Amino acid sequence: MIVRIMGEGQVQLDDAHFTELNKLDDELLREVEGGDEQGFRRTLTALLDAVRRLGAPLPDDALEPSELILPSPEASLAEVREMLNDGGLIPD
Known about the structure:
The protein is an alpha+beta fold. It has helices spanning about 20-35, 35-55, 75-85, and strands spanning about 1-5, 10, 55, 70. It is globular, with a radius of gyration of 13 Å. About 25% of the residues are buried.
């Protein structure tokens, strides 16, 4: 799956990693819904770090369609709240 981190670029991520990412996504959803700014910031950083660690970056000139778009590391809680669907940022 091709994942875009807003403001950074795209990574190719194997579907096998989505169990780990979904755990972080579920935690992020709870923190956003609860307005936990500190927890939100910590978990968003952990989620993006995991995507970077587990994925293979695509070249900057690659223009592949992204199947999943994640917020930038600087995104606010309110901005991420607008991006969420019922299951979080990452579909189950």
